[in-house]
Amino acid sequence: MPMHQRFRMFRNTLRAASAAMALALTSAASAAGVAASPATDEPYHVVHGWPQLPPDFALGQVSGVAVDSHNHVFVFHRAENSWATDKTKVIPSATVMCFDGSTGKLLSSWGQNRFVLPHGLRVDSHDHVWVTDLGLQQVLEFSHDGELLLTLGTERSAGLDGSHFNRPTDVGFAPDGSILVSDGYGNSRIAKFAADGHFLLDWGRKGNGPGEFDTPHGIVVDTQGHVYVADRGNARIQVFNLDGEFIRSWSSTELGRPWALTLGSDNRLYVVDGGDAIADQPARGQQQILKLDLSGKILAHWSRFGNYDGQIYWGHDIAVGKDGAVYVGDVLHGMRVQKFVQR
User: Fold this and answer.
1) In whole angstroms, what is the distance from residue 185 CA to residue 209 CA?
2) Which of 152, 171, 292, 309 has the fewest CB atoms inside 10 Å of its own CB, making it the most exposed?
3) What is the CATH number of domain 3-32+42-342?
4) Which residues contact 16 (CB under 8 A, 6 or more apart)?
5) Which bin fits 244, alpha (ψ -120 to 50), beta or left (φ > 0)?
6) Segments making up each domain of the chain, as ranges
7) Over the stretch 111-153, which tens digit does the pLDDT of each residue have?
8) pLDDT over 90 at 90, yes or no
9) Helix, strand, or coil (residue 41)
């Protein structure tokens, strides 16, 4: 049986098992008196049938998602390495998929024999595609069509300096063109580079105090140069200026555990709370999607833990199109990307 068919069967088995688990957890919550909000009360709804995948094709764990200026939705997934026990080998399949945001049609794909352990993905103002790879220990800039333009970090070599990362998670872009990297699982810092890739400075260390991190997992910069970091392990969002000076932080039961965040064209912050990273348990985080203003006020929230359409299972990354559509990628058993639009 071809590899992609085995992968599809494996993923479908995982989905069936996790859907049963989600149903059991929902039933348990109801028995305990915790009522789920009716779907009709939620401000956004899922678009069924998006994206349109080719026959006999299945996405792997979706670790990254972003939207360019043409409403093209880029999805970064782990393909065969989603279930591989040895995650040090290069993935033979295409790992970057480009879909039409409106129709969900697959427009292109690339990245064959290039990546090891895909993680974050961003699109900059030039429609260049930036990714982080935990296995390669690098941040890579590509053209819209997959031509390599810039490399940050030393391949397969971990470290804590201007030319090394330790499992970098995400990348953001400042108004002045500088590049900020959340670094990451091994290091607990933010690294800043000039637009040409020259290292400028870094800040942060392991801890739970102001300016300290426990898995800085997502990063985005607003037009005023404020840097927002999803400090996942500490269940909070921290805000800094471009010199790394701490401004404030937000944490609450309602915010949950932020895994990823992005800015919409409406100047709102969109956040995915992926939960506590405990397989088959929703745990402390609420597995939800949130919209905040830039003062940290929660304006809307929707979705919940599960594997049915409109629910999320380890929501790992989030993106927003200029039309306001919200895209969320599931990295564990879900292995999918979903589109949500406002009611």
Assistant:
1) 17
2) 309
3) 2.120.10.30
4) none
5) left
6) 3-32+42-342
7) 999 999 999 999 999 999 999 999 999 999 999 999 999 999 9
8) yes
9) helix
For residue 119, give Cα distances in angstroms to 61, 181, 217, 232, 242: 10, 12, 10, 15, 24
Whether cis (ω within 30° of 0) applies to the bond prior to 282 is: no
Which backbone phi and psi does 29 adopt, to 5 degrees? -65, -40
Looking at residue 10, what DSSP letter applies?
H
Q: Which of 256, 254, 294, 252 is nearest to 275 (CA)?
A: 256
Strand partners, 124: none
* φ and ψ at residue 99, rounded to 5 degrees: -115, 150
Reading phi first (left if > 0) and then psi (alpha if -120 to 50, else beta), residue 162 is in alpha
Structure token digits, residue 8: 């599809």
Closest CA to 151 of 97, 125, 114: 114
Please state, in angstroms and rounded to a whole number, the distance separating the CA atoms of residues 223 and 230. Answer: 18
For residue 277, name the pLDDT band (cuts at 50, 70, 90): low
Helix (H) or strand (E) holding 239: strand 236-240
- Residue 296: burial class (beta carbons within 10 Å; 0-12, 13-18, 19+): middle
What digits encode the pLDDT tens for the residues 281-290? 445 567 899 9
Read off φ and ψ for residue 26, nearest 5 degrees. -65, -40
Exposed, middle or buried, 333 (CB in 10 Å: 0-12/13-18/19+)? buried
User: Who's near 198: CB < 8 A, 6+ residues apart?
Assistant: none
- b/e for 220-258, b at 16 or more Cβ within 10 A? bbbeeebbbbbbbbbbbbbbbebebeeeebbbeeebbbb
* pLDDT above 90: residue 4: no
Nearest Cα neighbor of 142 from 154, 155, 131, 153 is 131
Looking at the DSSP bridge assignments, the partners of residue 174 are: none
227-231 and 216-221 beta bridge pairing: antiparallel
